[in-house]
């Protein structure tokens, strides 16, 4: 699904990534670890198609419409409700039977009762759950998740564990986290950035 060789990324004089090789097979689960500033987010943005390497070759075997991306920012509209957000993204991704899919995700992620409230009234944890619904909505072939456990309480984290475990092997994952122990049992490989 993903093959990168000699990946480098510079922003002006600042080098963020240096000579990174990555290979993730279809259905693989790559766990990306490293300290703050090691380039995890930059690598994930390149894999998601939101940044291009300064040097090196990167091939991703999923078209952009088949990638689910969760960033540090939730990338949802705060003035809209959860339903309105997911309806918008569902139309953009041409999700079949989207109303049923939206209802199922909101129920599964514990947001059904708050589905018609504006996101601006949500806690950070609720907003993160909605961002996860957005990333999972179109049943992508490749999920690129940057710190998906951020702001989740223990119930939310356990729910995400179950979702990832249920999709392991069928969906390709690249996940950056400061809590790698949580995912080591389902990860097929680990990429440590320094």
Short key terms for the protein model shown above:
single chain; 194 residues; alpha/beta; Rossmann fold; five-stranded parallel beta sheet; 5 helices; 29% helix; 27% strand
Which fold name is given in CATH as the topology of the domain at 1-62 and 141-153 and 169-194?
Answer: Rossmann fold
Distance between the termini: 24 Å
Main sheet overview: 5 strands, parallel
Which residue ranges are poorly predicted, with pLDDT under 50 across at least 5 consecutive positions?
Answer: none
Q: What is the number of helical segments per DSSP (H or I, 4+ residues)?
A: 5
Explained architecture:
By secondary structure, the chain is an alpha/beta fold. The protein has a domain at 1-62 and 141-153 and 169-194: Rossmann fold (3-Layer(aba) Sandwich), CATH 3.40.50.300. The protein is built from five helices and eight strands; from the N terminus they run E-E-E-H-E-E-H-H-H-E-H-E-E. It has helices spanning 40-47, 82-92, 98-108, 124-136, 154-167, and strands spanning 2-11, 14-24, 29-34, 55-60, 67-70, 142-146, 172-176, 189-193. The strands form two sheets. The chain has a five-stranded parallel sheet, sandwiched between helices. A three-stranded antiparallel sheet has the order 2-1-4, covered by helices on one side.
